[in-house]
Amino acid sequence: MKLNNRKRNKPHVFTDSLSDIMFFLLLFFLIVSTVANPNVVKILLPKAGSTEVLSKKQITLTVTTEKRYFIDKKEYSFDELETAVQEATANVTEPTIMLRLDKDLVIQDLIDVMSIGAKLKIKMVLATDKKG
Prior knowledge:
alpha/beta
């Protein structure tokens, strides 16, 4: 009886294209992560020569060109704004509100919002983009 002793071919896995696939996945997720922005309300900030980065936890108050008021992404009317600011800063020891106003707003709109902060004795900081 003759037995067949030939070598069996092992299956070959082609891994040449795996590095290309991993590169494209990495590139895709890098692009998607830079496009994602935590601030939902899109406005154009005014430009400033120097900027300071705040490290404390602050509350963000955004005013759009249509005079829509947002406190941390929740919309309020101007009449509700004072009570909303008071509620948002109630449990904060040193409340700081970062004002994000569109650059096309009238100065009176800024004064109206800042007068609420002065009335409640809350520190308000104007957010700007760096020139250049």
